[in-house]
C-alpha cells in the first residue's frame, strides 16, 4: 500500500453538508421522521452567565447515607468534591466526531458542561446522536456539532468566536483532533510530514489560540487540554511513525510555552499522553496486523490495552477546578509503558 494511503484519517477537507430546513422532533423526544439535526440538537439547559454553585446532591444522598445499602457519593455536587463540577461551563472538544474525543466529551457533559464538538467529518459516528440525546434528556445540558477542519484557521476562529458570542463565555478546550500515519523514515515524503505537522501541531496550536482569544475576551480564565501521546517521549517498538511521534513531542512542548504565556490570564494549558487505546481506528489496525493485538499489551506494566473510557476522569480533572494549580504539565496515562 502506498504510504500516503495509509493515513488513518485522511487530511482532505470534508464536504460541507446541506442542512435540511425542517425536522420534526417532538419535545417528548420521540422521533417522528428524521433524527435530530446535529447543528440544532435537542437542548438541555443553557449555561448561565453568572457563576452558580455546583448542584446539590440528589435526594437519594441522605437515604443512601442512612441506609448504607448504596454509595452516598455524588461526585461534583455541593458536598462531594464540588471542584470537579463543570456546571455552566462551555467547553470545546476538537476531534469529537468519534473515538477518544467523543468519549471524553460525554464525560464532560456528565460533569455538567455544555460541549461543542468540532470535527472535520460531515457526519459524526452513530454514537454521537445517542450522547446528544442523553445530554438533553438525562444530563440537562447540550452537545453541539460544528464541522470544521482545524487547518482552516479563519473558519475555526469564526466558529469559536460565535460560540463565545452565544454564551458570553468560553471555559475550556480539549484538543483531540489528530491523525496518524505509518511510514518508514527513509520513505517519508516532505508533503506527508507537513500534513502530519499541520494537523497535529499547527491545528492544535491554532485551536488553542482561537479558544484563548475568547477566554481572554470574556476574562473568565480557562483550561486547555491537548491530547499528546506516550509516543511524544518514546519510539514505539514495531510501530513506525516518525512524523507522528515528532508531532506529539511538539504538542507536549507547545503546552509548556502556551502555559507560560497565558498563565497571566488565568488560562492553564496541560497535555494528556495516552498509551495505546483500542478505538475503532486501532481495531481496524489489528485486523491488518494481528501480532500487534498480541504484542502491545505485553509492553506495559499492566499487561493490557486501554479503552477510551479510561481517559474520562483525566479530561474532567484537567478541565475543572480540581486541577486549578496545574499548568504546563503532561499527564501520562499509559499503563507504565513509557517508564519501562
Ligand atoms: N488511539 C490511540 O491509541 C492513541 C494513543 C495516543 C494518542 N492518541 C491521540 O488521541 C487523539 C484521538 O485519537 P483517536 O484514536 O480517537 O483517533 P480517531 O481517528 O478515532 O479520532 C480523531 C478525530 O479527529 C478528527 N480529525 C482529524 N483531522 C482533523 C482535522 N484536520 N480537523 C478536524 N478534525 C480532525 C477525525 O475526523 C476524528 O474524528 C488523537 O490526537 C491521537 O493522536 C490516540
UniProtKB/TrEMBL annotation:
Similarity comment: Belongs to the short-chain dehydrogenases/reductases (SDR) family.
Source species of the chain: Ramalina farinacea
Entry's Gene Ontology molecular function annotations: oxidoreductase activity, acting on NAD(P)H, oxygen as acceptor; oxidoreductase activity, acting on the CH-OH group of donors, NAD or NADP as acceptor
Region (Disordered): 32-71
Signal peptide region: none
UniProt KW keywords: NADP, Oxidoreductase
Name of this chain's protein: Uncharacterized protein
Database matches in PANTHER family: BENZIL REDUCTASE, CHAIN DEHYDROGENASE, PUTATIVE (AFU_ORTHOLOGUE AFUA_4G08710)-RELATED
InterPro entries named among the record's database cross-references: NAD(P)-bd_dom_sf, Sc_DH/Rdtase_CS, SDR_fam
Pfam families associated with the record: adh_short_C2
Highest taxon in the source lineage: Eukaryota
Matches recorded under SUPFAM superfamilies: NAD(P)-binding Rossmann-fold domains
Amino acid at each position: 500500500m502506498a504510504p500516503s494511503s495509509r493515513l488513518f484519517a485522511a487530511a482532505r477537507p470534508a464536504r460541507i453538508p446541506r442542512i435540511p430546513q425542517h425536522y420534526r422532533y417532538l419535545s417528548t423526544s420521540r422521533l417522528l421522521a428524521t433524527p435530530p439535526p446535529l447543528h440544532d440538537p435537542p437542548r438541555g439547559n443553557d449555561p448561565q452567565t453568572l457563576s452558580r454553585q455546583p448542584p446539590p446532591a440528589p435526594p437519594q444522598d441522605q437515604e443512601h447515607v442512612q441506609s448504607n445499602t448504596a454509595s452516598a457519593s455524588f461526585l461534583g455536587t455541593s458536598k462531594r468534591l464540588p471542584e470537579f463540577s463543570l456546571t455552566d461551563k462551555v467547553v470545546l472538544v476538537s476531534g469529537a466526531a468519534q473515538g477518544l474525543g467523543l468519549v471524553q466529551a460525554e464525560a464532560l457533559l456528565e460533569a455538567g458542561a455544555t460541549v461543542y464538538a468540532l470535527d472535520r467529518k460531515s457526519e459524526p459516528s452513530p454514537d454521537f446522536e445517542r450522547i446528544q440525546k442523553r445530554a438533553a434528556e438525562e444530563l440537562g445540558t447540550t452537545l453541539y456539532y460544528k464541522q470544521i477542519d482545524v487547518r482552516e484557521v479563519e473558519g475555526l476562529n469564526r466558529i469559536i468566536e460565535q460560540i463565545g458570542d452565544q454564551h458570553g463565555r468560553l471555559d475550556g478546550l480539549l484538543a483531540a483532533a489528530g491523525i496518524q500515519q505509518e511510514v518508514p523514515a527513509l520513505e517519508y515524503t516532505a508533503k506527508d510530514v507537513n500534513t502530519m505537522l499541520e494537523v497535529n501541531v499547527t491545528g492544535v496550536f491554532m485551536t488553542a489560540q482561537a479558544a484563548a482569544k475568547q477566554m481572554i475576551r470574556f476574562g473568565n480564565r480557562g483550561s486547555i487540554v491537548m491530547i499528546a501521546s506516550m509516543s511524544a517521549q518514546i519510539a514505539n517498538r514495531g510501530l513506525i511513525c516518525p512524523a507522528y511521534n515528532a508531532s506529539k513531542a511538539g504538542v507536549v512542548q507547545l503546552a509548556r510555552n502556551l502555559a507560560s504565556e497565558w498563565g497571566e490570564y488565568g488560562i492553564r494549558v496541560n497535555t494528556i499522553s495516552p498509551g495505546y487505546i483500542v478505538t475503532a481506528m486501532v481495531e481496524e489496525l489489528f485486523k491488518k496486523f494481528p501480532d500487534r493485538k498480541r504484542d502491545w499489551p505485553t509492553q506495559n506494566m499492566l499487561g493490557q490495552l486501554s479503552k477510551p473510557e479510561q481517559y474520562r476522569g483525566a479530561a474532567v480533572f484537567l478541565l475543572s477546578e480540581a486541577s486549578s494549580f496545574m499548568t504546563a504539565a503532561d499527564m501520562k496515562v499509559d499503563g507504565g509503558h513509557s517508564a519501562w
